[in-house]
TrEMBL record:
The keyword Metal-binding appears for this protein: yes
Xref: PROSITE patterns: PEROXIDASE_1, PEROXIDASE_2, PEROXIDASE_4
Subcellular location: Mitochondrion intermembrane space; Mitochondrion matrix
Species assigned in the record: Diacronema lutheri
E.C. no: 1.11.1.5
Name assigned to this protein: Cytochrome c peroxidase, mitochondrial
Length: 346
């Protein structure tokens, strides 16, 4: 199997490419950019750094506080299959998922949904099936929100996901602030930021990864304005984290480096052998249909393998499996696009 890169190594590599904070040239360049990144490898524009001004967000301090949380050895992702799986960066994949799911409700035709509003804070969206477990991510961010009351929840959730990508060794994803918060749960017909259940991708359309599942994936992502290449790039986020039986019903990680974003997800799909999971820890598997590798330690969902079984998706999987730099470039662009869908930046 491929060499496992742990969180600390990814973090060290990330630190090596950071830009020294405070240089005039870097700040000026960021100020002139129309859509600037304020992740670990880039600077906030001066207009966003007025920490002393009332009502301003201190983006440098916010970044530092979020990174401290992402690297915390005590912050955990509780209730995972009857145990605790956290610390040392294990919450970072959950933050990527939080940002993804906040934005992934967008509909390009109606202009509804998206990350604006932080609508997942309210029922019924907080209880939508695709958001199971994300209450833990939101709870972990509450102390950060209290320390930075002027940042909107919507910007906070997205920025945490952007930094989590970098903290896991992934690319710098451009971030633009300016999202607002909904004040209360509101019917979708009265506030276009709220959406009904069913807008997030499902793991199986009933044919276990064949034509119906591939079409379901396209229906979900085309609705947001993505093409096949962008769909596959965004799916690469499954290099991070794992499925949990107490949330989705599925079990296991996609790769052996759960806290490192890499192209290993694509390599595993192509180079490993995947069969239907029949047993789990010595007992018959009673969860939904999923696939496992010969060791039983790694898993793939039907919607994952649909990417290699579909003739139009597969070439993109092959390109990313062969070229991690290309995957990082395309993922950063597609993820930024996703996080900005439906946001009316002022």
């Amino acid at each position: 199997m491929f060499a496992t890169r742990v969180f600390a190594a990814a973090r060290s590599a990330l630190s090596a490419r950071n830009v020294a904070r405070g240089t005039t040239a870097a700040v000026a360049a960021a100020a002139s950019a129309s859509a600037f990144a304020i992740g670990m490898g880039a600077h906030p524009a001066p207009s966003l750094c007025k920490a002393a001004a009332p009502g301003a967000v201190d983006w440098y301090k916010l970044r530092d506080d979020l990174l401290e949380l992402l690297e915390s050895e005590t912050a955990t992702n509780p209730g995972v299959d009857g145990a605790s799986n956290g610390g040392g960066g294990a919450i970072a994949p959950m933050m990527v998922r939080l940002a993804w799911h906040c934005a992934g409700t967008y509909d390009v035709k109606s202009g509804t949904g998206g990350s604006d509003g932080a609508t997942m804070r309210f029922k019924p969206e907080s209880e939508h099936g695709g958001n199971a477990g994300l209450q833990h991510a939101r709870a972990l961010l509450e102390p950060v929100k209290r320390a930075h009351p002027n940042v909107s929840y919507a910007d906070l959730y997205v920025y945490a996901g952007v930094l989590a990508v970098e903290a896991c060794g992934g690319p710098t994803v451009g971030f633009r602030p300016g999202r607002s918060d909904a004040l209360k749960a509101t019917p979708p017909e009265q506030d276009k930021r709220f959406t009904p259940d069913g807008r997030l991708p499902g793991a199986d359309a009933g044919d276990h990864g064949k034509e119906k599942t591939a079409q379901h994936i396209r229906d979900i992502f085309y609705r947001m304005g993505f093409n096949d290449q962008e769909i596959v790039a965004l799916s690469g986020a499954h290099a991070l984290g794992r499925c949990h039986t107490d949330r989705s019903g599925y079990w296991g990680p996609w790769t052996r480096a759960e806290t490192t974003l890499s192209n290993e997800y694509f390599r595993e799909m192509l180079e490993n052998t995947w069969t239907v999971k029949k047993a789990h820890k010595g007992k018959p598997w009673t969860g939904p249909l999923q696939f496992e590798d010969p060791t039983g330690e790694l898993m793939m969902l039907p919607s994952d393998l649909a990417l290699v079984w579909d003739a139009r998706f597969k070439p993109h999987v092959e390109k990313y499996a062969a070229d991690e730099a290309l995957f990082f470039k395309d993922f950063a662009q597609a993820f930024k696009k996703l996080l900005e869908l439906g946001v009316d930046f002022k």
